[in-house]
């Protein structure tokens, strides 16, 4: 019996690839371990004249605001600004949103092993798992997903220190691609000194550059001709302070861990820039514990998603609604005279704000009658699986107006004039096309609370939007049918312009929900989150 091994080109290639991967990891770990002592020594060591510069955080409170305005603050983002010390949630967001579910599972399984290493190596290992193989020009998680979670983790007291200074330099141990969008766009930081990622043929290789260049040039640029001793440092007591960045500071204020535990969350109304748009599927902060609950929920959630979807597609509303309630979907509906008026006239336009793709479906269920959904942009898959009739507009005013008038003769229609969804308590600009259809207009105020997954996306696959919504354990829909549009405020009988009608309806819905009205559009949202104009 011949037991010799056949060395085919395929087996030779597999063997060489395995050896190369093992060699890379062994080299990476050995190099990291050998540099731990030197890196820590470099971070802990300061010149002798720096020691008297250290100050307690409490002494900063008594400083004059005028003096602070003339100083440049050098702060460490993770140690001096964020309340939580764990970086796992941010890498999990990168792995899940920019990568895939498989990558997120790998990071989750590897994290207990990663925790055995010092902080510097932990960060490098999480960077490798989260970023390896991701295309650089497709990775927008740093500007579209992470800012929301960073803002929710900012300590109000640390934020006040930041805002008291005229010029700000943010230092971070995280990759620049993760923190730059948050620090510059939402906190107004002048210079961000994070870690640059290595790129090969347009893809991240999962490694960071060892050195951060351009710090002195940045100091000279933002300080102009002022002396360099106008720098003030802000860090955390007991944490490492890099000599490279903090040795130039005339004073360094350190906050203790016990003081940070007393910090409060930054209130939403204190955000320097309003958080209106953000992307991503995860609706919760993915700590290790919360992520473990998500993975435990997924098998049961998928089964529940199938049950809910089948009920919506194949069962009448009167039977489907109890199934929804039993499976955890909560609905709150309040009516006015609009419902009765719609039945008498037979041609009512229900104008609602846009929270998810299922808005027209829920309006139809609340009315207990079929309606036609008029959409500005929806995927073909969503059209095919919709339980109600759906019509796509062509974005040509004359042809769209003619088509909608024909549909209005047959049934009531539901239109979302924002043209896209908005997750936060804001209303985008209403397209005025609906105002010319009829004077029989009923505003409908919609709100939605997600418990685990967002049922909307700007950069992902929209055909999965309904599935992610149905995966939630306890989603809640709130529907308020407002009073019909008064004749004096209508386009026909009232003589108002279509823009005045659209603005009036937007204002009424905003009042009912407590949302703020804006003039932002679908184009603004997609340019910010996806880098395109949102054409599906």
From TrEMBL:
Top-level taxon: Eukaryota
Coiled-coil blocks: none
Transmembrane segments: 12-30, 87-117, 288-315
A GO BP annotation: cutin biosynthetic process
Classification via InterPro entries: HAD_RAM2/GPAT1-8, Plipid/glycerol_acylTrfase
Limits of the Phospholipid/glycerol acyltransferase domain: 348-449
Protein name as it appears in the record: OLC1v1002087C1
Source organism of the structure: Oldenlandia corymbosa var. corymbosa
Phylogenetic lineage: Eukaryota, Viridiplantae, Streptophyta, Embryophyta, Tracheophyta
């Amino acid at each position: 019996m011949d037991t010799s091994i056949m060395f085919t080109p395929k087996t030779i290639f597999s063997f060489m690839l395995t050896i190369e991967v093992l060699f890379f990891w062994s080299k990476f770990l050995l190099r990291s371990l050998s540099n731990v002592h030197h890196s820590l020594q470099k971070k802990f060591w300061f010149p002798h004249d720096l020691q008297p510069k250290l100050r307690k955080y409490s002494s900063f409170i008594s400083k004059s605001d005028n003096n602070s305005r003339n100083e440049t603050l050098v702060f460490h983002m993770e140690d001096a600004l964020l309340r939580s010390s764990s970086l796992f949630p941010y890498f999990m967001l990168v792995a899940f949103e920019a990568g895939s579910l498989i990558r997120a599972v790998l990071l989750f399984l590897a994290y207990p092993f990663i925790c055995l290493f010092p902080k510097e190596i932990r960060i490098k290992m999480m960077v490798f798992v989260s970023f390896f193989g991701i295309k650089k020009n497709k990775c927008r998680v740093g500007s579209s997903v992470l800012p929301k979670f960073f803002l929710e983790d900012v300590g109000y007291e640390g934020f006040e220190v930041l805002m008291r200074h005229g010029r700000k330099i943010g230092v971070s141990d995280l990759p620049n691609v993760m923190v730059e969008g948050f620090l510059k766009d939402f906190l107004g930081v002048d210079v961000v000194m994070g870690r640059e990622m290595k790129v090969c043929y347009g893809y991240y290789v999962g490694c960071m550059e060892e050195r951060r260049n351009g710090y002195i040039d940045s100091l000279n640029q933002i300080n102009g001709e002022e002396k360099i001793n106008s720098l003030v440092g802000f860090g955390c007591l007991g944490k490492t302070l890099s000599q490279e960045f903090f040795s130039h500071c005339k004073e360094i204020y350190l906050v203790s861990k016990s003081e940070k535990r007393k910090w409060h969350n930054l209130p939403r109304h204190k955000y320097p820039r309003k958080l209106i748009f953000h992307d991503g599927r995860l609706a919760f902060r993915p700590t290790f514990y919360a992520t473990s609950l998500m993975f435990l929920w997924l098998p049961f959630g998928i089964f529940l998603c199938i049950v809910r979807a089948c009920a919506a597609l194949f069962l009448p509303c009167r039977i489907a609604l109890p199934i929804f309630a039993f499976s955890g979907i909560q609905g709150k509906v309040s009516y006015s005279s609009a419902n009765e008026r719609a039945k008498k006239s037979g041609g009512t336009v229900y104008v609602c704000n846009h929270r998810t793709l299922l808005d027209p479906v829920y309006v139809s269920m609340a009315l207990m009658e079929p309606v036609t959904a008029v959409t500005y942009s929806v995927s073909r898959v969503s059209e095919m699986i919709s339980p109600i009739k759906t019509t796509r507009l062509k974005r040509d005013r004359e042809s769209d107006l003619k088509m909608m008038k024909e549909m209005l003769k047959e049934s009531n229609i539901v239109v979302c004039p924002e043209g896209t969804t908005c997750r936060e308590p804001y209303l985008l600009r209403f397209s005025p096309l609906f105002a010319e259809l009829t004077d029989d207009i009923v505003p409908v105020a919609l709100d939605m609370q997600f418990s685990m997954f967002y049922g909307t996306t700007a950069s992902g696959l929209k055909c999965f939007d309904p599935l992610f919504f149905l995966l939630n354990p306890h989603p809640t829909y709130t529907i308020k049918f407002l009073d019909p549009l008064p004749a004096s405020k209508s386009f026909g009988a009232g003589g108002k312009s279509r823009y005045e009608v659209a603005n009036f309806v937007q204002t009424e819905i905003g009042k009912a929900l407590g949302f703020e009205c804006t003039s932002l559009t679908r184009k603004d949202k997609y340019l910010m989150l996806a880098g395109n104009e949102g054409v599906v």
